[in-house]
Amino acid sequence: MASNYHIGIDLGGTKIEVAVLDSQDKILFRERLFTEAHLGSEHIFDQIHALYSKAVMSIQNKSHTLGLGTPGSISKKTHLLKNSNTLCLNDLPMQALLEDKLVHDIVIENDANCFALAEAKMGAGIGYPSVFGVIMGTGCGGGIVFDGKIRQGPQNISGEWGHMVIDPQGSPCYCGASGCVETFISGGGLEKRIKNTTGNSISAMDFFRIPLKDESLKKIKQDFYVRFGQALANLINILDPDIVVLGGGLSNEGSLYKEGIEEVYKRIFNDVPTTPIVKNILGDSAGVIGAALIGERLTQ
């Protein structure tokens, strides 16, 4: 029997969010806590449990599905979490641990896939057969949705453009490679570049808002647009999606939709590039909505 309520949990590097959707996909309850990953995996599970308990109380313990979006994905070979930039969670049996702690079946999916699904079904991607969803936040991820369904791939790595190498001489990435997209255009990667170049700590969003007098900072900013263009054009040249939807904190930076898109279009392998590259509609709700939507698999 199908459940009338769907609970989603969005596990991010900075915050964890929970939301409850009804059968019409309307948000009934929403709350968040800081992830505080530096306190370890047990603390993260406790934060998830606290949010989930409040969500269940909001629907008076009624029947529901449960989905969780997380950086990385579950290995089909080991059933352990892999490729997460919340490093303390890698190599853990996330599904077993959470189902034991929450006493409920759960579907776990990559957070960028959740974002892409939400935008495809309820956001900027409505009406487009293929949607590539981009996350530019603490890390850099991506998800592919074809005909309303997530493309996972046989290795659960479909859409992981953040670990496409665009400069082998670039900075080391936690994945073991050097010069990944994530090291250049994620919020975390950009902040590290600023720190390593100038010795100053500037948040990614402040970097775009404050006047830049330092020539080295101006070069970093221009290089950011170039790397964004290089990375996204490579992706478009391979997939040719009907639309690209940007999400994550950096998607709020307006210059991406001018200087950034100009750099992308210079590099697309077509005489007249037409790929729409747009800001998300669902805002920071997209990830948690997508997590709730993937939980619906439990009833299918």
UniProtKB/TrEMBL annotation:
Belongs to the ROK (NagC/XylR) family. The lineage of its organism: Bacteria, Pseudomonadati, Pseudomonadota, Betaproteobacteria, Nitrosomonadales. This is ROK family protein. It comes from Candidatus Methylopumilus rimovensis. PANTHER family: BIFUNCTIONAL UDP-N-ACETYLGLUCOSAMINE 2-EPIMERASE_N-ACETYLMANNOSAMINE KINASE (PTHR18964:SF149), ROK (REPRESSOR, ORF, KINASE) FAMILY (PTHR18964). InterPro entries: ATPase_NBD, ROK, ROK_cs. It comes from the Bacteria. One of its GO terms (molecular function) is UDP-N-acetylglucosamine 2-epimerase activity. CDD domains: ASKHA_NBD_ROK_EcFRK-like. Pfam families: ROK.
